[in-house]
Design the sequence.
């Protein structure tokens, strides 16, 4: 088409294809976009990083980050959170923690999504105590905590046979005005049934 659609239009299209989980298609389309002279922006490059992370190629994701910096773009919190998620998907929790620390040193403020990804990953590998410490850090930094964060930890506590602690976490959550949802109650019911 002449004139070519804007990069914003392309990025919206790519985002829709990502939601359908066609990551390889997105990577191919981005290469074709570049071959016809369309300049990529931070958002498009972040979509590309996301695709590589979902394909378990977080190393390529970091290559795209390097390219982004070389082009003079500043990655945003979403870009870096995507890499954190990619590291977590590969089971590299320590690498994800190092990246978050590095982000903070460089002035990036990890958001609730970044920390939620970390909490979820820590719980999946049985590091519930570390997940709770991270939740406490979030409280100290005045993050707005939500039902997903608490439910993730409650589920992990139940799986660790710590149902009493899970019930205490439920009470704490409700005292802060956060209402439990179906996931929260299902975790507790399963924990109570499985462990008496």
Sequence:
């Amino acid at each position: 088409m002449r004139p070519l659609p804007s990069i914003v239009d392309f990025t919206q299209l790519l985002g829709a294809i990502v939601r359908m989980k066609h990551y390889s298609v997105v990577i191919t389309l981005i290469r074709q976009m570049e071959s016809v002279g369309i300049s990529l922006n931070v958002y498009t490059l972040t979509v590309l990083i996301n695709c590589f992370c979902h394909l378990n190629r977080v190393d390529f994701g970091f290559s795209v980050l390097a390219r982004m910096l070389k082009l003079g773009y500043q990655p945003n919190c979403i870009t870096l959170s995507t890499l954190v998620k990619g590291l977590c998907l590969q089971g590299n929790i320590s690498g994800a923690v190092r990246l978050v620390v590095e982000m903070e040193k460089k002035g990036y403020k990890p958001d609730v999504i970044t920390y939620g990804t970390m909490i979820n990953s820590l719980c999946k590998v049985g590091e519930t105590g570390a997940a709770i410490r991270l939740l406490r850090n979030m409280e100290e930094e005045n993050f707005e905590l939500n039902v997903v964060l608490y439910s993730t930890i409650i589920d992990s506590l139940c799986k660790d046979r710590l149902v009493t602690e899970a019930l205490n976490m439920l009470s704490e959550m409700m005292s802060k005005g956060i209402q439990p949802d179906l996931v929260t109650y299902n975790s507790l019911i399963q924990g109570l049934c499985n462990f008496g």
Observations:
- The domain at 111-196 is CATH 1.25.40.10 (Serine Threonine Protein Phosphatase 5, Tetratricopeptide repeat).
- The CA atoms of residues 79 and 194 lie 40 Å apart.
- The radius of gyration is 20 Å.
